[in-house]
Amino acid sequence: MRYIKYFFLTGGIITIILSCIALYFSLTPQVGAIGNGPNYTKIWTDFTIQFLIGLFLVAYSIYFIKKND
Q1: Which of 13, 29, 31, 64 is an S-S bond match for 5, by CB 3.0 to 4.6 Å?
Q2: Domains identified in the chain, total number
C-alpha cells in the first residue's frame, strides 16, 4: 500500500502523455477516401476523458503523498 500513490502518479502522467499523443495522431491527415474525415466530436471527447482521468490520478496521488508525509 505504500507504493500505490507513486503508481497512481506515474500512471496519471503516462495517461496524460498518451492522451496528447493520441490527439496528435488522430488529427494528422490519414490516407483514405475523401468522404471519410475525422469525427472531431469523438476525438475531443476521448481526449478530454483521458486527460481528466490522468489529471485526477495525479491530483489523487499528490494528495496522498502530502497527507502521509
Answers
A1: 64
A2: 1
